[in-house]
């Protein structure tokens, strides 16, 4: 017979085991939805004429402040060395400054749906870079994935080349830079992550380094655009973007540590459809048939390497990050 003390404990453990996949799936859906919503919010702020420099500076300062506050709550302070500082500056430039700036510039030219379509292809570009550097083996599934991803990109590029007035080539260029930059950042972080610091410390260091790198832009900053006395719906979009970015970063590392990199890669699929959905609902975007074809090809490209189940080492946050970056 079971003792009175052991039975409730075993029941609680069984309940947690049974509901863990559902909990992880719920958080994965939330993560993907937040990824997609981020770019729609940037589109709202950009279309309102808040200014690219203003949006970039305000977002980075608020993000850095939020992560520093989280460090204080978690009591995760540490003494950085020059090795840490160098890592933060490079990863902050690749992980925050360049992609955020590229997304803001792209939002001025093209729809949020197209931006999130390119951003969702980051795992494909990461895999391609890893194959070029020979850190990953070439397989049939990966060949198929990269081919489908390339066809998806061509579905957007071809109409722009054939009919230059249909979509901005400059905007496509900025949007296409996002998965390339994120892929480089993923591989760099995976290869140079200092073993003595944890994810919260890394993302905080990156955000602070991003602010430091952006300080020269203060010369061009128009403070009147973000005056608290005249804030509008568009200004709140920037604040909501920062809040979502903070939550998304935590969910990203939480799910990698609990469910593995392959599982988190599925968030790219969700983010693509979420970004298009939010763009249609919130700002009335519409897309031609070529974009919808690109969405189908991108979904197949993201699904192809994930169809075969693979094992992930528990707790391998640093190594897993390269396999499933945004």
Shape: globular
Question: What proportion of the residues form beta strands (DSSP E)?
Answer: under 5%
Number of domains: 1
Treating each run of at least 4 consecutive H or I residues as one helix, how many helices?
A: 12
Measured as a percent range, the helix fraction is over 70%
Return the average pLDDT rounded to an integer: 80
Q: Specify Rg, calculated over alpha carbons.
A: 21 Å
N-C termini distance: 51 Å
Poorly predicted runs: 1-10, 309-324
- What's the β-strand tally? 0
Structural class: mainly alpha
Order of H and E elements: HHHHHHHHHHHH
Describe the sheet with the most strands: none
Explain the layout of strands and helices.
Elements: H1 6-47, H2 52-74, H3 82-107, H4 112-119, H5 122-132, H6 140-162, H7 169-192, H8 199-214, H9 233-259, H10 261-283, H11 289-303, H12 317-321
Description:
It is globular, with a radius of gyration of 21 Å. The longest helix is centred in the first third of the chain and has 42 residues, at 6-47. By secondary structure, the chain is an all-alpha fold. Helix 1 packs across helix 3 (82-107). The chain has one domain (30-220, 231-321). The chain has helices at 6-47, 52-74, 82-107, 112-119, 122-132, 140-162, 169-192, 199-214, 233-259, 261-283, 289-303, 317-321. Residues 1-10 and 309-324 have low confidence and may be disordered. The chain is built from 12 helices and no strands. The termini are far apart.
Question: What tags apply to this protein structure?
Answer:
disordered N terminus, 12 helices, 0% strand, single chain, 326 residues, disordered C terminus, mainly alpha
